[in-house]
Amino acid sequence: MMNFDYVRPASVADAIAEASEKGATYLASGTNLLDLMKGGVSRPSRLVDVTRLPGLDRIEHLADGGLRIGALVRNADLAHDADFARNYPAIAEALLSGASAQLRNAATVGGNLMQRTRCAYFYDAGSACNRRWPGAGCDALKGENRLHAVLGWSEGCIATHPSDFCVPLVGLDAVVEIEGKGGRRELPLEALHRLPGETPERETALERGDLIVALRLPTEAKNFAGHSRYIKVRERTSYAFAVVSAAAALRIEDGKIREARLALGGVAAKPWRARGAEQVLAGAAPDAAVYREAARAALADAKPSGDNAFKIELAQRIVVRALTLAAAGTPDRIPALPGSPFSSVAGA
Amino acid sequence: MTVELNLTRDPAHLRHGSNIGQPLRRTDGALKVTGKARYAADNHPPGMVYAVIATSCIARGRVTALCVDAAKRHPGVIDVMTPAHKPELAEDPDAKGNPFAFRMELLQSDEVRYANQAIAVVIAETLEAATEGAALLSPRYQVEIARVGLDAGETYVPPAVGIGHPAEVRHGDIDAGLAAASKRIDATYETPAQYHNAMEPHAIVAVWDGDRLFIDTPSQGMAMAQMRIAGLFGIPPANIHINSPFLGGGFGSKGLVSGPQVLGVMAAKLVGRPVKLVLRRSQMYGPVGHRPPTRQRIRIGTGDDGLLTALEHEARITTSSFDDFYEPAADASHTLYASPAIRTAHQAVRVDTGTPLFMRAPGEATGSIALESAIDEAAFACGIDPLEFRLKNYAEVEPTTGKPFSSKALRQCYAKAAERFGWAGRPLQPKQMRDENGFLVGWGMGTATFPALMFQGNARAVIRADGRGVMESGAHDMGQGAWTALTQISADALALDLDQISFLSGTSDLPDAGIAGGSAHTATVGAAIHNAGAAVIAKLAELATSDERSPLFGAGNAGVVARAGRLHRRDDDARSESYAEILARAGVAEVEASGTGAADPAAQSQYAMHAHGAVFAEVKVDPELGQIRATRLVGAFAAGRIINPLMVRSQLYGGMIWGLSFALHEEAVMDKRSGRILNANLAEYHVPVNADVPPMEVITVDEHDPHVNPLGIKGVGEIGITGSAGAVANAVFHATGIRVRNFPIKIEEVVMGLGG
Amino acid sequence: MNLPISLTINGVRREIALDDPRVTLLDLLRERLDLTGTKKGCDRGQCGACTILVDGRRINSCLALAVSHDGAEIVTIEGVGRGDQLHPVQAAFIAHDGFQCGFCTPGQIMSGIGLIREGQAGDDPERVRECMSGNLCRCGAYQGITEAVLEAQADINAKNTAKQRRSA
Question: Which of C60, C111, C123 is best to mutate for the A interface (most A CBs within 10 A)?
Fold first, then answer.
């Protein structure tokens, strides 16, 4: 690990000032950053420790019925907050399906949003990677890429975003509150992560010095509490990144889907909101045929970036499964194996 | 003098039985659960500094430049060891002094022969400084195209496979057997490169004192490590003191001292201070061995009656570009199934990786998953239940040699495990079973087998004036429970209660216990202990029976029997004397004797010696998403005498989980262009986590084997993988109807195979 | 760089003159404070061998910078027993043979203690398996680990109930 200056500012303003210099980066719990630093992928010259910043570790119920989650709230605390799990069950399930209990105890909400790809070529210092080294090329493109992106990728980068948490969040229109040199601003979470295009190295919409201070869920996000699921296919039962995942949230009234939210994980460089599928579902009766149509719509623009055509088929099936399970109703308690297909019934 | 003869002629049971066979808890348990067990990297001698290896990121070529100055400028860095700046070695690390001397990279040149090879070592006052110093070396390379995978180049027939086994074995006429068959299977299976990934990374703390060397390092074979290091540094083996009381897992990767461990010794010599060197997890994917990838073609012929007419098993394996280790994958077909014609053959390809090495059930594991899959395919083709098919083709004698088995309770294993599992009534056709939640359910089985091996080991027994006993042997406990099992054997060998003896182990200063490998350690060292115990009691008996003041005087040909710290006349049990009394009267402080355990060549030439087992697996498969979960594993094993049922069960569980992992999880993924392993970590090199492991059950079937060794032990460390891997794979077929022949079974094969 | 920090480790407050911000809690414990019960298996948050309790919560100490934890309360495997008396989780690991090589064991035990405190698994073996999945065991002692955690939890809960009854 390269040596670095360590600073622990007392206020958000000081933090922004400290982090506005080239080479500086924020340190929250460090569960991803330290991993990247140990791997030589990230070599910051200054760490700005934000873990003690006051006021960022609260979950606040807003007057308008929304929820504001401080950036320093720990993943485990959020998932185990009884109100939160009741109102936003798919998010809680996604949180608990990610990483391990130890990592969830440490990882923060803000840090999780900034989690970087697990693409092996990104991690492998000997490989060409446009994210690490703009213009270097992408060794994943003709490499071992069975788990890479099928949506929104470019010749410059076919990496996927690894987060589980972000998948239901984009589905539920989460908003990110950012403090920066220019003051406070907001961004839909969907706009935080960028698709690679010509500039894969620009992973998010944040500018130097920008600090995520909170995540906000709008009032409507609660409306889906009765019909929400997060389903994640993995290569082992737990403690593994998603091959493909889906968050489905439905508002069902009078036997009709009034409103649907659908997002996919593991398919693109960002958590993927499937608006086309949502349109298919809106107003329809909740049945298998419409789920399949929605699944086709969700993956309509998908194309393999390598040896991964199966992910397009798998993603469609997981969409159908997530919708089926969501329609069947949110379970009373988060299942023993959160996100696992084996926690629920099979068959669509 | 007949006493010793009398004693050793006793059936082992006579004295062995009071402690042996008891489910004793681990003698080192309290140390391990409190964190007090000191593993190699836990040592910190005064003045110690840290060494960190810089490794190559190319798989083939040369290092053309290293920024040594940049590393040296980093605060805390003491020195940088490179090919140009290192202690002289007394021996070329590429010399092949014996078949177990594998070539190692000790900075002898700037050549790179695989990714993750050591190219320099940075020594610093702190771990942090050494780590960053290694990164600052920023090597430049002259890169050559890497040879990767089973199709990397010309194949050749290896001179031998495994430990000196012929690359090809023929029994009967394969072509005739296949021609005569009414049904034929011709299937090709692939298994990936796998890495041992013991939880404890290879580590060494090395301290030089003149030409004496003190080492803390995990070793499955301290005496061999001593010899190798002695040769490399030109000092007598006796000058090298290795401490290895606890290994954080070995699985074969700590059987032979590895290059990085020797680099730690060199670094200590270079800077003249104690050095600690610990491999990073990623650095364990290269210099410390692995299981090579295999491609195995199996052809099976069967008659209308379901009897085999031919079994052919061909394996292609890789080895490194610079050394020879040949995974004997096809040899798995030598012993299990009766067939008038059996042929096994191996071909090898040289690739730019570290040299593959022994990894838990080397050959047996890779071969077993292919063979058990093929047998399942053959049974299915014949329309016969897989268990019935195996029973039809049960080998009453070892098929390739015609030798009788020293013991073989496989039929009982099949019966007990099948009954426990509830195998009866299993539908023959796949994709017939669903659980209440709609998941596909499949049941599969496999036969387990592993040879009952013996190496050579020694022990020294002492009986002290106070009547207590000491047993010493430089044995190795890598988790299998050697401390505990060997303590039990020691107590029985000395005819003392457990609390009356001390068992000393885990250092090279004690008698050479051979190597902890081949599932042979308990058998080998156990035999040595048994013989040492018999010898020391014989000495004690001689003291007593030749002394007219002893109640045992004149026992003569009748002899004496040792029991609970006393010797009794065999013909008059009431006449006895305690060890302490015998020694006190003789005025002797202690008696000591040594014993050796080794294979009996006569028995080996007469009998085929193997442990056996049967494993039944249930898996559930998501019918749309393709994710697989094992939900039940039941195994029954016949492995001779069981010393400690608790440890044995744990060993067998562990092996079965490795089998499950082989079928469903683990695989090293290599970039075909660079030859670098892309998942050289524990996040993406998937070993099973707790949630992957289903409820398991192990049944041990009693086997009395008077031929394998004095204690009748066959070993249980590796057999659990065999059979299990195939059972899980076969269960996946039974659940889905999809026969996946590339392991591990990947989600896409199931997803695409299951249709929409 | 002089970075004095203060930590309470196994109940003892320690002032530590840290000279390097790169030091993780794991390396601090192991290499500078001779608390080597906590193990390094991967150093990247992928195996759980380094699990300790920080302010009562189980975390991977390999991914925690010591300097960032100034003031924290830390419990390691060395601090869970009372004198010679084993913690119920430790005792249960021995009874159920929840380990073989023992290298992952301190992390497993700390994780088990953390899990019991979290109170999320109840007596459901499936939840215990899931919640212990952040601790790899290459020897494959998982069945014993699960049994040990369940038994220790029942034991601890029974004792707590008895204590409450006595005080009521």
Answer: C60
Fold of B40-144+202-278: Aldehyde Oxidoreductase; domain 3 (3.90.1170)
Nearest to B747 among A144, A243, A347 (CB): A243
Which chain B residues have any C-beta within 8 angstroms of a chain A C-beta?
A: 57-58, 75, 115, 128, 131-132, 135, 437-440, 620, 622-627, 629, 664-665, 669-674, 676, 678-679, 683-684, 686, 688-692, 746-748, 751-752, 756
Gap between the Cα atoms of B472 and B19, Å rounded: 18
ipTM: 0.98
Tell me what pLDDT residue A347 has. 61
CB contact under 8 A, A35 and C114: no
Q: Is the pLDDT of residue B528 over 90?
A: yes
Using the beta-carbon criterion (under 8 Å), do A237 and B620 form an inter-chain contact?
no
Domain B294-453+605-754: which topology? Answer: Aldehyde Oxidoreductase; domain 4 (3.30.365)
> In B, which residues are within 8 Å of A314 by CB distance?
625-626, 747-748, 751
Q: Are residues C71 and C94 in the same domain?
A: no
Q: Which of B144, B718, B748, B749 is catalytic?
A: B718
Chain A residue with CA closest to B131: the answer is: A1
Q: What is the CATH number of the domain that holds C40?
A: 3.10.20.30
Q: Say whether both C97 and C26 belong to one domain.
A: no
Place of tokens 């049960």: B394
Q: Angle formed by the axes of helices B521-545 and B579-586, to 10°? A: 50
CB contact under 8 A, B684 and A342: no
Convert the pLDDT of each residue in A148-180 to its tens digit: 999 999 999 999 999 999 999 999 999 999 999
Give the fold, CATH level 3, of B3-37+458-598: Aldehyde Oxidoreductase; domain 4 (3.30.365)
pLDDT class of C92 with cuts at 50, 70, 90? very high
Range B184-193 average pLDDT: 98
Paired tokens of B243: 């401490």
Chains that touch C (3 or more CB pairs under 8 A): A, B
Across B61-71, b (16+ Cβ under 10 Å) vs e yields bbbeebebeeb
- Domain containing C123: what range? 88-167
Range of the domain at A21: 5-52
B718 is catalytic: yes
Spatial separation of the C-alpha atoms in residues B422 and B420, rounded to whole Å = 6
Nearest to B42 by CA among B216, B167, B300, B284: B216
Cβ contact C93–B29 (<8 Å): yes
Task: Give dist(CA A280, CA A319) in Å, integer.
Answer: 13
Which amino acid belongs to residue A5?
Answer: D
- The count of structural domains within chain A is 2
Could you tell me which residues come within 8 angstroms of residue A265 by beta carbon, excluding any fewer than 6 positions away? A161, A163, A164, A166, A167, A232, A242, A244, A245, A246, A247, A271, A272
Query: How does pLDDT run across B99-144, given as a tens digit for each residue?
Result: 789 999 999 999 999 999 999 999 999 999 999 999 999 999 999 9
Q: What is the pLDDT of residues B536-581, one digit of tens each?
A: 999 999 999 999 999 999 887 778 999 999 999 989 999 999 999 9
Residues of B in contact with A119 (CB under 8 A): none
How far is residue B104's CA from residue B96's CA, in Å, rounded to a whole number?
10
Which residue among C49, C129, C143 places its CB closest to the CB of B199?
Answer: C49
- Mean pLDDT across chain A: 97
Evaluate if pTM is beyond 0.95: yes
B250: nearest Cα among B686, B743, B717: B717
CATH number at residue A286: 3.30.390.50
Same fold for the pair B40-144+202-278 and B294-453+605-754 = no
Nearest CA distance, B48 vs chain C (angstrom): 10
Name every chain B residue with its beta carbon within 8 A of the beta carbon of C128: 690
C46 contact residues in B (CB cutoff 8 A): 281, 681-683
Same domain, C105 and C146: yes
